[in-house]
User: Fold this.
Amino acid sequence: MATDTAGRFSPHMRGVTVTALASVMGILAAVGSSVVTAEAATPATDPMGVFVLAGAILVQFPVLQVVGIDVGEFSTKDYLYVAFMTFSLWFVCWGILLSTGTTF
Assistant:
């Protein structure tokens, strides 16, 4: 329609941006969890690792707004997608860091 305004991002670029940020934040959350739980007797069961994950999920929405993604248009599915992608990358990367005994 003639009255529609062009958004800053095409739907494809919006999806790529959201996915890339969620993936990077998941990896950074894994490194952060590893750093925060390094001194714990059992780092895998330390709840601080999950708190880092929750923070990484929550910080993404203001970052997406700064980048120019309209978070107001997000549906429940979009929020769950961001949370799941971040959790997935965090889980795999932190599992690798725990298995190899990597410390920072």
Q: What stands out?
A: The mean pLDDT is 93.
